[in-house]
Each structure stands twice: as C-alpha cells, then as structure tokens.
From TrEMBL:
Keywords associated with the record: Calcium, Hydrolase, Metal-binding, Metalloprotease, Protease, Signal, Zinc
Listed EC numbers: 3.4.24.77
One GO BP annotation of this record: proteolysis
Protein name, entry field: Extracellular small neutral protease
GO cellular component annotations of the record: extracellular region
Length: 197
C-alpha cells in the first residue's frame, strides 16, 4: 500500500502540470538590456524647441535600448541642440552618457529652403544615435534627409532605423562607443548624394 501512495504522489504533480522541484528544460527568459539614458540641452535652440520635443518623442516611441530626456537643471547634457544660421550639422554617435558631448546644430538655411523643422530635428538626432545619411532613400526613411525633397515631412524613424539604433545600444553604454569622431554636415548637393552610400 505504501508503495502505491509513493507512486501516486510522484505522478500527481505531472498529471496536474505542476513542477515538483525538477529543473525545467525551458530556457530562462533573458533579462532585458539596460536602457541607456541620454540627456540633452535645448536651451540654445531658440525657435526649434517644439520641433526637438516632437523629434525626441518620435525616437523614444521607436526605440527600446536608449531613452532621450532633457538634462536636469545644473546637470551636464550628453548632447546639446543649438540654433544656427548655416546648414544642419551633428556629431556622429552613438553618443554615450559621460562621454564626449555631442553637438546638434540646427541650421536655418535648410528651413529657408523649405525643409520641415521636425524632420530636421529628428534626422539630426538620428546622427547622435549613430545613424549615417542615406540621401538616396525614400521619404519613409528618416535618414534620407533632404534627398526626397521639401515635400517630405516624415519625422519618424522606420523599423530598420530603430533596429539599428537599438543594436547600437543593445549592451548598454559601454558597447555603444564609436570608433571615430566625425561631424556630419547635411548640405544639399549632388556630391553628397553620390557619397552617401
């Protein structure tokens, strides 16, 4: 009788779908990557403030491994937006917290030629996050920049662009260090289209 009780006790958890202290053959879920928080300072951006807010919100909605937020009062920003009279230009990232400070110059010349301010701000932020230009790309590609012309107002990164940024920050800030320092100047010219890829 005791042998039967022991046998039933051993089979009962399996019949009920309950584990009984036996290791599961399923892999444990992966811990999520640490989200990298980058802070920015837009106090020198003048009339670009609303465009920056919208562009940053577009990036924050599209990516998972990095979060952009305004720097706290008195803090050191990881990158700075500045309004200028020239063409937009930006430090090519990926920028990391506590590393070299990135610069985003939001140039009025692009606006004067008819380009959308939110697209410009979001595009330049893409450079901070490590993306290169692809002027031959379609309007749906944010990093196509001025390539599709002034009628293009898309300021949202596509899935491939978001995935590339997530890959840049996949293992936290330590893995996101760039191999070189470079400034990207987004001036419209046929030579830029030819050099973009």
């Amino acid at each position: 009788m005791i042998k039967r009780i022991v046998a039933v006790a051993a089979l009962l958890p399996a019949a009920l779908g309950v584990t009984s202290g036996v290791a599961s053959a399923q892999a444990a879920p992966k811990a999520p990557s640490a989200v990298v928080t980058l802070t920015y300072d837009a106090r020198q951006a003048g009339t670009w403030s609303a465009a920056i807010t919208r562009g940053v919100a577009n990036w924050n909605s599209a990516v998972h491994n990095v979060r952009l937020q305004p720097v706290s009062s008195g803090g050191r920003a990881d990158f700075v937006y500045t309004a200028t009279s020239g063409w937009p230009q930006t430090t090519l990232g990926p920028i990391v917290p506590g590393g070299r400070r990135g610069q985003v110059q939001l140039g009025q010349e692009a606006v004067d030629e008819g380009y959308d301010v939110t697209r410009i701000a979001a595009h330049e932020t893409g450079h901070i996050l490590g993306l290169l230009d692809d002027y031959s790309g379609p309007c749906s590609e944010l990093m196509s920049g001025h390539g599709p012309g002034t009628a293009c107002t898309n300021a949202v990164p596509n899935a491939a662009e978001a995935a590339e940024v997530d890959a840049n920050y996949a293992n936290g800030a330590a893995a996101a260090r760039p191999h070189h320092e470079q400034i990207v100047i987004d001036i419209w010219s046929p030579e830029n289209v030819a050099r973009s890829r």
